[in-house]
Amino acid sequence: MSATSAPRHVEAFAHAAGSVAAGVPGGATGWQGTLLDIHIAPAASYEMEALAEARCVAGRGIEGDRYFLGTGTYSPKPDTREVTLIEQEALDALARNDPPLQGGPIHLAPVDHRRNLTVRGVPLNHLVGRRFRVGEVILRGGRLNFPCKYLEELLGLPVYLPLYNRSGLNCGIERGGIIRPGDPIALLD
Amino acid sequence: MSARVVMKLTVVEAVATTPEVLRLTLVHPQRPELPAWEPGAHVDLRLPDGRTRQYSLCGDPADRGRYVLAIKREAAGRGGSLWTHDNLGPGAVAHVSHPRNNFGLAAGARRHVLIGGGIGVTPLAAMARHLTAGGADFILHLCARSAEHAPLLPELRALCGDRLRCWLSAEGARFDPTALGAPEDGVHVYACGPQRLTDAVQTTLERAGWPAEQVHVEHFAPIADENYKPEPFDALIASTGAVIHVPADVSLLDVLRRHGFAMPSSCEIGVCGSCECGYRDGTVIHRDVVLPVAKRQDRMMPCVSRARVSVTLEL
């Protein structure tokens, strides 16, 4: 499980999506969000572990996480995956079966969805190509996350379709530091 | 093999139940409850080198707080059991997947006949606990060399009473599957153990006219991926009849693309499920971790999976 070498990440604003979005104006402004939970996993398929604080390292990831260590399911394929975020509001929608895309409500706990940060009040789909602050850390939105069948198989839950277009955001770390649940999240620039 | 969440569990007890069999009790370091499971289920135990071994859960399915495994030391095996015996003492960390069940009890059966050979008794022990708790009708045949070598014997005696029949070869007693007689409605037979035992049970019952749905057998096959060497094969395209050769060092997905098929893909390492493709008429070597077992008979992931000799693709 130890890292053999530093993983290769695509810098967020160099990503095919982020590089285009950075030059396009628009997106929600004036919002103020909160970091609810931090989760990491030591390697592909391993259960996520909740952290009371985490160290973010620029260009690398969250210390101890599989995409920091290069042991993630998708680590062999370079991409923007230093930190992944998902909206609590999307999880709430799944829990009320809204829209009714599957058999019934799906309760996806923060320990289950396999994104690192669960956030509230943050319009993640508007943040590709944008810089924003989580506590003292600065993140860059690189691309929209999208659900994969692997998660569905791993959880044994039909989450693929219900997560489509609200699966979260993959980010790079511009400025590292310590983050904790409760940290405020706000747009920069 | 398909994807399952892996947990780092703590060994709280490691006791020898026979000279060769270690009984491990595992708990979650943070949570009071482990994922629920049904009798017959197994978990994957991960070894430090990343290989996995399957072991049946042999404790009480109603006890959500702990998993119990019984692992036989196989000196001539592939090394997994030796590592386990030497390293998983109290306080050690065991990397264990969520349980999965390919050997479940038949719903609606009125009587269950459980046949275990040696360490193969482990899934049947969980079944016996569940059936005892529910007041169900069952009998457990335990085949072993001697009482000393019969895994979990004291606890199975206490649990099953006269519903346990021991067949100890050192005492000249051998289980004879012909004694199961003619098929009966609502009676289900479950066998787990060395292949000569499970083969004998299956062959005998088939000859006696038992429907296959009433006979359940568990095998733990080696992981297909170990020491896997890709070999060339041919892919026949169902819609056109074209035959495309896939060399040993190129993926089926790449070959299809070179021939003009616009195949979607994302991870190309067998985990995301994007390139899923239908097939028929061929033996596919499934090497992905995403396709559920139930779909593997006619679907495959061409980014990592291959075929033996030839396969017909639904393209």
Write the layout of secondary structure elements.
The complex is a heterodimer of chains A (189) and B (315).
Chain A: H1 16-21, E1 33-40, E2 49-50, E3 54-57, E4 61-62, H2 66-69, E5 83-87, H3 88-95, E6 117-120, E7 131-134, E8 137-144, H4 149-155, H5 160-163, E9 169-175, E10 177-179, E11 184-187
Chain B: E1 6-16, E2 21-27, E3 42-46, E4 52-56, E5 67-72, H1 80-87, E6 93-97, E7 111-117, H2 122-133, E8 138-144, H3 153-160, E9 164-168, E10 187-192, H4 195-207, E11 215-218, E12 233-237, E13 243-246, H5 252-258, E14 277-280, E15 283-285, E16 299-300, E17 306-308, E18 310-313
Order of helices and strands of chain B: EEEEEHEEHEHEEHEEEHEEEEE
Q: Any idea what the radius of gyration of chain B is?
A: 22 Å
Large-scale geometry of chain A: globular
Query: Order of strands side by side in the largest beta sheet of chain A?
Result: 1-6-5-9-8-7-11
Note the overall shape of chain B.
globular
Oligomer: heterodimer
> Percent range for helical residues of chain A?
10-25%
Number of helices of chain B: 5
Strand content of chain B: 25-35%
Q: Give the percentage of residues in beta strands of chain A.
A: 25-35%
Rg of chain A (CA only) = 15 Å
- The parts of chain A where pLDDT drops under 50 for at least 5 residues are none
